[in-house]
Structure to design on (291 residues):
């Protein structure tokens, strides 16, 4: 995974820590014959939510890294993680722009408003908020017949995961966000809820900085039972093999998860949670085997 890709992924979850609820900016529900038909999405997670709500075929422009579902990759790119292309968006003549309130520039959004383009703000929140946001999009876009069942299915899947892994062993976890400089996560609600669901205690949860840059010595002090990295690259975990005094290293409890699945505010987090909780069970088994 390139630095830029990882930066965008980290950028997404850093801002998520600021949100405590799933409320979204009020947007008057249009009459049926005027549901938005030409939609622009300004973040990867809003792109996924629009598809999940049943209106993916109305998207005419998306942000960089809008790579799921597959159809999103073919859409024109109108924004990056730092800025949006106002001219390109205007040329597409959208009747709705869905943006990420914590991530997209307020100045850019205000400029769109000045041109008379309707905008809708999405906030990232906790695990339960996914279903709520999909339903709200369904109402706004007139796709309730698709959005409501998708929301119900997500709620059921999340409830099933909570029941299935309710008795997972309690284990201390060090979560590696970035290898150099070494970075972890403290109290980001999106990730923290996933950790807790799987029985993990985040050893840096009480850090005053949401995403602290730390050193190996601090991890040595914490003595985590499990190390997990948000990466698709095994090489980013290689440095830990030197530190056999860490229980996670001694017992072979070093794992990785796909950040595009686990970090992004979308229904796919169900897959990420399943992977993380199975890691917890495997880690416990490794400890038993090595006793």
């Amino acid at each position: 995974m390139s630095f830029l890709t990882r930066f965008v992924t980290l950028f997404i979850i850093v801002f998520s820590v600021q949100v405590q609820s799933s409320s979204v900016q009020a947007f008057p529900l249009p009459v049926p014959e005027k549901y938005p038909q030409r939609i622009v999405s300004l973040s990867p997670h809003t792109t996924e939510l629009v598809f999940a709500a049943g209106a993916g075929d109305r998207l005419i422009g998306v942000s960089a890294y809008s790579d799921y579902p597959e159809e999103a990759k073919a859409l024109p790119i109108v924004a990056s993680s730092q800025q949006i292309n106002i001219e390109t968006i205007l040329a597409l003549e959208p009747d709705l722009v869905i943006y990420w309130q914590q991530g997209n520039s307020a100045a850019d959004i205000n400029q769109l408003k000045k041109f008379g383009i309707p905008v809708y703000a999405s906030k990232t929140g906790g695990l339960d908020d996914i279903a709520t946001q999909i339903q709200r999009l369904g109402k706004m876009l007139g796709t309730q017949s698709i959005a409501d069942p998708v929301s119900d299915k997500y709620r059921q899947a999340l409830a099933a995961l909570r029941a299935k892994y309710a008795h997972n062993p309690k284990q201390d976890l060090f979560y590696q966000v970035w290898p150099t400089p070494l970075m972890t996560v403290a109290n980001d609600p999106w990730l923290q809820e996933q950790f807790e669901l799987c029985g993990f205690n985040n050893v840096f949860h009480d850090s005053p900085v949401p995403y602290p840059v730390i050193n190996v010595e601090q991890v040595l002090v914490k003595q985590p039972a499990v190390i997990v990295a948000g990466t698709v690259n095994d090489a980013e975990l290689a440095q830990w093999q030197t530190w056999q005094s860490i229980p996670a290293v001694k017992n072979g409890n070093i794992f990785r998860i796909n950040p595009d699945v686990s970090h992004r505010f979308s229904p796919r987090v169900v897959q990420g949670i399943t992977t993380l909780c199975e890691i917890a069970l495997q880690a416990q088994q490794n400890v038993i085997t090595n006793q």
